[in-house]
Write a structure and sequence with these properties.
By secondary structure, the protein is an alpha+beta fold. It contains 1 helix and 6 strands. The chain folds into 2 domains: 1-37, no CATH class; 43-119, SH3 type barrels (Roll). Strands 1, 2, 3, 4, 5 and 6 form a 6-stranded antiparallel beta sheet that branches. Strand 3 and strand 4 (85-92) form a beta hairpin. The chain is globular and about 30 Å long.
Amino acid sequence: MHRRLLTAMFAGTCAATGAVAPADANAAGAPAHHAGAQAPIPYDELVHHVGERIVVHTIFKSTRVGVLIKFSKVELTLDIPTSSGPAELTMPKATVLRVLPAGKPSGTGHDAPAGAVRKN
């Protein structure tokens, strides 16, 4: 009982500070998930997300955000804005590490440009 209370208190503190709590002992070794985290999209399910904004993390430790415009078993294509106008970026499946839903831009001006590349 004391362990659960301490775990709950620690998790609450982590949530308040934005830190991620360690895995819960009762979760059979599964890592704890941040409350705001979105589930990754399996590559083969991207066919259902054409036309949506996604975040693509690559094996090169870069991140791309854009609208998925094409998808196949071997590659995906994003529509990304650049300083010189819209551009298409095609990425081989072998370079895709993880894909997440991106949601809509906040419009506050604090977001990186939709096609911006960022080192992880």
